[in-house]
Each structure stands twice: as C-alpha cells, then as structure tokens.
Amino acid sequence: MTRQGRAEPSGSSSPRAVRWGRGGLLGAAGVAGLLAASSALLLAPSAWAQSRLVGSDYISRPLVLPEGVLRIDAGPRRPYSGGQLMPAGQLQFLINKDFDDLAYLVPGAGYGVIDKLELGAVWPLRISPDLDLSDLSVYGKYSLHHGQIEAAGYAELRIPIEGDLEITGGVPVFLHLSNQVRLETGGFVRLTFGDDVNATFHVPLSAPILVSPEVFVGPEIGIEIYNFEDVAMPVGVIAGYTLGGGISSIGDLLARLTFADITSGADTIRLDIGAELFFDLL
Question: Which CATH number covers residue 114?
Fold first, then answer.
C-alpha cells in the first residue's frame, strides 16, 4: 500500500490510512449477516431471469451484450486498483495490512442498446467501516471484432462524489482457445484529474476453464503501472457456477480471491462475491 488508489474497489475513492487493529476488521456475525442478505438479494431475480442470447455457459458469454439483453452485475468491466480483475462482485471485501478493512455493496447493470453497443453503470456503497456512497461510474463498450477473437472499444467516466474525476479508455479482448478455455485480456488507461493528472495503465489476464458445463475456475494475473514508475501485480483465482443450461442461461454465481499486489508483499487481500443475471427484454 505505497501510493494512493492501491486499495480501491469499483468506482470508489481511496481509503485513508489508519493503524492496523481489531477495529478495522469485520466481525464474523457482520460478515455472516452481509452474506445472507446479499445472497437473498442476488438470487431472488433468478427465478425469472433467463436469456437465449448470451450462451449456455460462462466461456461462451459474449464480450458485448446482444441487443435487448440486460445484465445485472457489479458494473464496469475493466480492471481497477486494489486487485480487481474483470468482472467484480456485488460484495467486495478488502483486508488491508496498513489501512482500514473495507466492505462494499456494488450494484450495477449493463444493457445491449444495439447489437454492437453495450451501456452500463455502477454506484458502489461502502458498508464498512462506515456507511458512505462512492463515485458513480458510467461506461460504454462497442464491438470491434467478433469470432474466435473478440475485441471491443471501451470508454468510462467516473463522476466525482468523493474522489476525483476519472476517464478510462481501453480495448478488452476475449480469445476463445477452445469450448472449455477462454483468455480474457486487453489494455486500459485511466486518467485521474486531481491536483495533478495521473495515468494508470492496466493489463489483465484471466483464464477461466470449464471443469463441467456448470463449473468454471481459473488463474488470474494483472499488471498495473502508475505514472510510468510504480508497478503493481495482482494475482488470484476466479471460480463460479452457471445457473440454467441447454440453449438458455439464467446467469453465473462467481467468487474471486486476489492478492492485490504481490510486489508489495500482498498487503491487501481482496474477496469478490457476486452474480451476473441475464434478461432478454426484447
């Protein structure tokens, strides 16, 4: 945790430094309550969520949502500081060695406006150690190539409520190696406008693998370069379970565990828990 922004979740501002201690940790009862409430929230729509346009398993999900498809998720689908590799979870926990431990509830959604254009937004809410609304982010993603290699143009605006104005651009890429393996990568640059203009470059690499038609798991790694001088490297694993099957799909339950930066001794551990639910609205 050597610089500002290293422990932020989706769309949030950076935490303030405090002394490490028991006050920074979520109690076991609090975590259990959050998980129970969030599970009910995430799974309630699954009884009526269903899409025939997004593939029947996680590996076949398209990079850009088809026209008329709504996805309930945790917002913008690009890397953030703090160890986020695409996508994030609606519940985000960051356990920090030199900062407060943090917990966020992160509601977001994306929609296929036309066949090649997806628009979406996320508005995180910090729920521990205190309640606080974070910065609103809106994004757009336009398909540039579809097939075994998928590529898209990505643009995002983070509207400052607590943090600074941010603009992000990039090119996310999916490489379908087989029906069981997909590489998720790309390149992104994030400009933060505060007292100075700071640039952060992100290159993620995730490799989800289908263990069965319903279960996927895989390693993840990323590189984050801040102002061409400070380098962070998140390393983690993603695992999940697909709801539904056949020619349609309800969505995916997922979890990922990440060491936010192994170059600094893994001072931040990040846990994401979430769901992606799909709805054909047309």
Answer: 2.40.160.40
Dump the DSSP string for 207-230. --EESSSSEEEEEEEEEEEETTTE
Asked whether residue 7 is domain-assigned, the answer is: no
User: Are 172 and 184 in contact, with CB atoms under 8 Å apart?
Assistant: yes
What sign does the dihedral 17-125-13-275 (CA atoms) show? positive
266: pLDDT strictly greater than 50: yes
Taking residues 267-277, report their average pLDDT: 95
pLDDT at 12: 52
Each residue of 178-200: pLDDT tens digit? Answer: 999 999 999 999 999 999 999 99
Distance CA 147, CA 190 (A): 28
How far from chain centre, in Å, is Cα 141? 15
Total count of domains within the chain: 1
Q: Are strands 268-280 and 69-73 parallel, antiparallel or unpaired?
A: antiparallel
- Residue 3 within any structural domain of the chain: no
Q: What is the pLDDT of residues 131-172, one digit of tens each?
A: 999 999 999 999 999 999 999 999 999 999 888 999 999 999
112 vs 106: CA distance, rounded Å: 20
Rounded to whole angstroms, what are the CA distances from 183 to 66, 86, 127, 236?
Answer: 20, 12, 33, 15
Inside any domain, residue 193: yes
- Average pLDDT (50-63) is 91
2 occurs within a structural domain: no
Residue 196, Cβ neighbours under 10 Å: how many? 8
What residues make up the domain containing 166? 22-280
CA pair distance 233, 52, nearest whole angstrom: 37
Per-residue pLDDT at 232: 95
Tell me the three state secondary structure of residue 179: coil
What letter represents residue 262's amino acid? Answer: I
Question: Whose CA is closest to 205, among 235, 240, 241?
Answer: 235
